[in-house]
Design brief:
heterodimer, A: three-stranded antiparallel beta sheet, three-stranded mixed beta sheet, 8 strands, elongated, B: mainly alpha, rod-shaped, disordered N terminus
Chain lengths: ~800, ~270
């Protein structure tokens, strides 16, 4: 009795444990997920759920008897006895049953092949995209490191004139515990869905939930649309889950929106990401952004597969191409990609809108090629005067503490201002009703060293901040000229030379602040159009007459509209002078001398800024200081002092160090059609035939055997019969190699693109390294200029 | 006169045939390695090339990847050999793939001129390579992180080879294994069990052969993309570091250049005369 009780008790303990053990742990990890997927595609013991549910609908009315999911399962897993000995089918003959099974298997094989192909294509895309798509939530190694390196290379002058727009990115933290809770909630919601539904939802919300709801409907979810699709073969792409959207909306509401008030126009804010735990998935995160919150599957191995019950090829509307700010282009790093913005082509501004057909011409069919004229710079002159020429645009210095003696510049004419110790000039900005007909006018330097800058009171052409920048760059140009020195602006070339950089700085500032749309205009186009206006005495002075004047005028109007300020309230001009922007203050500070003993210079520690300082020091030293006592350094004359001949030969290194030119990078050409045609040609070559059109003719060509018969008629006949199979094997080999070939072509394109850019920078780094070493190797003698010494050169060793 | 074949002639013929056969056998024995049983060598012979010896895929040595030990042959059996191999293979591949992806985060040595050594090879990958034919005799010392897919593909090849071999000799192997189990446990071997086990193992082998390579191709497609851009990542990181070093050097040069005017404004010797 006791033994029986123990046995029963033991069974009671063991049975639940066995049941628990029998429950499989959810699959995570890349390889197990892929393996499970592959197993299911080849599984002979169970059919895929989508096939079981979909095939009965596909074959409805086309079979001898209505089929169900169980019939599909039995047919696919070769359990014909189970299928045909079903009691419900007693009126169906075995032959009819086998015919139905064959129909099911045929459809299942087709659909399985498509689904497997979809997964293969997805994995190929996954192998490329994560490193390069710039999606929020990923680690952007290349996207972060290269721009960061560029930042430390540039000087302030470069940033003011560089056509490449750098996106300002701000990192912000959030309460980890609070958002971990949100992540857990979302994980729980997702876990209730099937595998295919989770894949669909991850795809649906990968660019954010607000995008799905619509900007005007944030927080609203139409219950009728919940978990329903838009219909059609790609209907799954429009599926929604209100429960999930509510959770994402709550997460977005808990972001620190108060701190986000300080974010500047065009600045992107990036938050940390939180991992989600979803059974059967790995690398799923919840990403946060100031304007949206979404999900990201880091290594997606399955796409949203089409609905198999809809006949193939019937798209309702289709997914369509995303707009320039949508989809992948809505992400902080993604929007910097070449798919999301026009290329900065200095000499070739390209219309984004297609040209209208001329009268009488037919409207072109889509896919036309449009040619655009490339208009280079029209000016070739350059004026060099004494004073610092390098980094002449300014903007590389930070204002230092003003001296006590410094008189503050007011919005009226300040007659008591004058240039001080560390200055070659001083600017006096003032507001006036008329500035000789211009919005702003920079006059010549007067006898006190002051450059008056007039700003027109009450104007509605452009915000004052940018006019101030424009005029300050003119002040830079005039600062080192003698009193009443001019810029030769009375000639066309001189005018364009003088106006170009001020307009570049002005346009760059407007683009950074979002006034000018960088997707519609390039920096070059903006600067050239403004230069034409500045030199309006000559028609199209700086660009030359455009090939399409109407198009030019249209675009000019568009540009003017984009930076038109709101109607003036009264004090805008005065405020622009009293509360100058940081950029303007930086340019104003750059007017000062760099290397005069006793003068302070402050700047951000970048390579470019350091070079600006070094080069200005060298220039000022050469022009204003005696390098050799009593002598001008660049004049040849007899030995004036006994130690002149002891001067060491100049180091060869600076002469031999050639600074490599930094040429614009290019996108390697992707000729997909050419590649496919080459593959087709390979197919023919592999079959021993010349290129035939269409290439499918190469797969079976009886001449291959009839022109070269074998010794025996029977062998020849047999070979003829197996030609198809031989060709199929060759095509299969080629197909297997196609992926490798494609991979290599893609990698080669990427290498070509980056090799050029990185090689030039590597050369630059090498050159800079050489110069630094040369400076370090310079030997300074302990004795400089001995008096009354005639003992030879030994004293200088 | 008609000559009739005599018994004596027939005997002579047989004798000559026997001597010829012995000579051939002796020749074969003398040549040794070049003439062995089929499956190990193709034609060798005097002046011919030495062809590689194609060994068996399993049971080549102790503790190989596909060893079936005594512990595996448990009563009442039959041993789940295919399931064992399948589980071991997939588990090992999963560990190495996870290690490969995890190794993406590492400390970069920018001063190392050998690109292959920038990323350390995974310990699990090296351990597996040491058990595979191309690297089992110490050839794995040159393996690097980028060789992980190669090692995995070789592992797949041995796996498929083992399964194929098992398939061809399955009946005999199953019979031998079941016999051993039954003998150790004084049980009777039933041929029905043998047939059932043989059919089941053949089915499992067919299934594994149809999924192992596609699964490996897919996972290598995904991982190879990530590895492809890794070198560029490393270059970008090293370029960034070089930039920071150069920035520091340039700032020192700027400090030195501030002294230019001071240095050059040396006292004019003409002024020394008082």
């Amino acid at each position: 009795m006791r033994r029986t009780l123990v046995l029963i008790g033991g069974l009671c303990v063991l049975l639940p444990a066995a049941t628990l053990a029998a429950e499989e742990a959810p699959i995570t990890g890349l390889y197990p997920t892929v393996l499970q997927m592959t197993r299911q595609e080849n599984n002979q013991s169970s059919a895929e759920l989508a096939l079981k549910m979909g095939i009965p609908q596909i074959l409805a009315g086309k079979t001898a008897f209505p089929i169900t999911a169980q019939h599909v399962e039995a047919a696919i897993t070769n359990k014909f006895s189970t299928l045909c000995s079903n009691g419900e089918l007693k009126d169906v003959t075995f032959t009819e049953c086998m015919e139905v099974a064959a129909q099911i298997v045929e459809v299942a094989q087709r659909e399985s092949w498509i689904r497997a192909l979809g997964r293969d294509l997805m994995m190929i895309a996954t192998s490329y995209e994560p490193e390069a798509d710039g999606h929020t939530g990923r680690k952007h190694e290349l996207s972060v490191k290269l721009p960061a390196a560029m930042y430390w290379w540039q000087s302030g002058s470069d940033r003011a004139t560089n056509p490449a727009m750098s996106t300002k990115i701000r990192l912000m933290t959030v309460d980890d515990d609070e958002f971990e809770e949100h992540a857990d909630d979302i994980s729980g919601i997702l876990s209730d869905f099937s595998f295919d539904s989770i894949v669909t939802l991850l795809q649906r919300y990968k660019h954010g939930y607000a995008v799905v709801q619509g900007k005007d409907n944030r927080g609203d979810c139409d219950e009728d649309e919940d978990e329903g699709g838009g219909g059609g073969e790609l209907g799954e792409l429009t599926i929604r889950s209100c429960e999930l959207e509510v959770a994402l909306h709550k997460t977005w509401e808990d972001l620190p929106h108060d701190e986000l008030q300080n974010v500047q126009e065009g600045e992107l804010v990036v938050f940390p990401v939180f991992d989600l735990t979803v059974p059967g998935f790995s690398n799923v995160v919840l990403w946060l952004r100031a304007d949206d919150v979404g999900l990201l599957w880091g290594l997606p191995v399955q796409p949203v597969l089409p609905d198999i019950t809809v006949p193939g090829g019937s798209y309702i509307g289709g997914p369509g191409a995303p707009g320039l700010d949508e989809g992948i282009c809505s992400h902080a790093f993604g929007k910097r990609g070449y798919l999301c913005r026009p290329q900065e082509l200095e000499d070739c501004p390209i219309d984004l809108e297609p040209l209208e057909p001329e009268q009488g011409e037919e409207e072109p069919v889509g896919g036309t090629i449009e040619l655009h004229a490339c208009v280079p710079h029209k000016f070739e002159t350059r004026k060099i005067e004494s004073g610092s020429n390098s980094c002449q645009v300014g903007g590389w210095r930070i204002p230092t503490e003003p001296s006590i003696m410094l008189q503050e510049d007011t919005p009226t004419k300040d007659n008591k201002l004058q240039a001080e110790l560390c200055e070659n000039c001083k600017v006096d900005l003032y507001c006036q009703g008329d500035c000789d007909g211009a919005l702003g006018m920079t006059y010549n330097k007067n006898e006190k060293g002051v450059i008056p800058i007039c700003l027109k009171q009450q104007q509605e052409v452009a915000p004052y901040e940018y006019i101030v920048l424009h005029e300050l760059v003119h002040a830079q140009q005039k600062c080192n000229l003698p009193i009443e020195g001019t810029l030769d602006s009375d000639t066309q070339a001189g005018c364009c030379t003088a106006e170009y950089y001020p307009n570049v700085v002005m346009c760059k500032a407007m683009m950074e602040d979002g006034l000018v749309d960088v997707k519609k205009f390039t920096l070059e186009e903006c600067a050239m159009m403004l230069s034409n206006e500045s030199c309006a005495t000559w028609e199209y002075a700086c660009t030359g007459e455009p090939p399409d004047i109407d198009s030019y005028n249209e675009r000019k109007e568009l540009l003017w509209e984009s930076f038109k300020p709101p109607p003036p309230q009264g004090q805008e001009c005065q405020n622009a002078i009293r509360q100058m922007s940081e950029r303007a203050l930086s340019i104003k500070e750059s007017l000062k001398l760099s290397c005069t003993p006793g003068c302070e210079a402050q700047y951000e520690n970048t390579i470019g800024n350091n070079l600006c300082y070094i080069s200005q020091c060298v220039e000022e030293s050469l022009e204003a200081h005696r390098l050799i006592p009593g002598r001008i350094p660049y004049v040849t004359q007899d030995e004036a002092y006994p130690w002149d001949s002891c001067m060491k030969d100049r180091s060869e290194l600076p002469d031999l160090v050639a600074i490599p030119p930094l040429t614009r990078t290019f996108l390697p050409q992707y000729r997909g059609r050419d590649l496919v045609e080459q593959m087709d040609m390979l197919l023919c070559q592999v079959s021993g035939l010349p290129k035939l059109s269409p290439p499918i003719l190469c797969t079976f060509h009886p001449n291959r055997r009839t022109n070269q018969p074998l010794r025996d008629y029977a062998d020849t006949f047999s070979s003829l019969l197996s030609l198809n199979e031989e060709s199929a094997m060759r095509a299969q080999d080629l197909q297997g190699s196609a992926q490798n070939i494609g991979t290599r072509m893609g990698t080669m394109m990427y290498q070509n693109y980056l090799h050029k850019a990185l090689r030039e920078f590597a050369d630059l780094v090498r050159a800079a390294n050489g110069l630094i070493y040369a400076v370090g190797d310079t030997q300074i003698p302990s004795v400089a200029c001995p008096r009354n010494y005639t003992g030879g050169c030994g004293i200088f060793q | 006169m008609q000559k009739t074949p005599s018994r004596t002639s027939a005997k002579k013929e047989l004798l000559f045939a026997g001597i010829a056969l012995c000579a051939l056998a002796g020749f074969a024995f003398w040549k040794g390695d070049n003439l062995r049983l089929a499956g190990q060598t193709v034609v060798g012979g005097v002046g011919g090339p030495n062809m590689p010896i194609l060994g068996a895929c399993t049971g080549r040595e102790e503790e190989d990847l596909y060893e079936i030990t005594r512990e595996d042959l448990q009563f009442p059996g039959p041993p789940d050999v295919i399931d064992m191999w399948t589980e071991r293979y997939h588990k090992r591949v999963e560990q190495i793939v996870d290690e490969y992806l995890a190794n993406m985060q590492f400390e970069i040595d920018c001063l190392n001129s050998n690109v292959d050594q920038l990323v350390p090879p995974g310990a699990q990958m090296l351990a597996l390579a040491a058990q595979l034919p191309p690297w089992e005799n110490g050839g794995g010392a040159d393996l690097s992180y980028v060789d992980t897919p190669t090692v995995l593909l070789e592992f797949l090849r041995t796996y498929e080879c083992a399964l194929t071999e098992r398939y061809f000799f399955s009946f005999g192997d199953v019979t031998k294994e079941l016999k051993e189990i039954m003998a150790r446990n004084d049980a009777e071997l039933l041929w029905g069990e043998v047939i059932e086990e043989y059919v089941e193992q053949a089915r499992k082998i067919g299934h594994e052969m149809s999924i192992a390579r596609p699964a490996m191709n897919r996972v290598l497609t995904v991982t190879s993309g990530r590895g492809r851009l890794k070198n560029l990542d490393i270059e970008a990181e090293c370029f960034y570091r070089a930039t920071m070093d150069l920035r520091n050097a340039m700032s020192l040069a700027a400090e030195a250049s501030a002294c230019f005017p001071r240095v050059q404004d040396t006292k004019d010797p003409l002024r020394d005369y008082e």
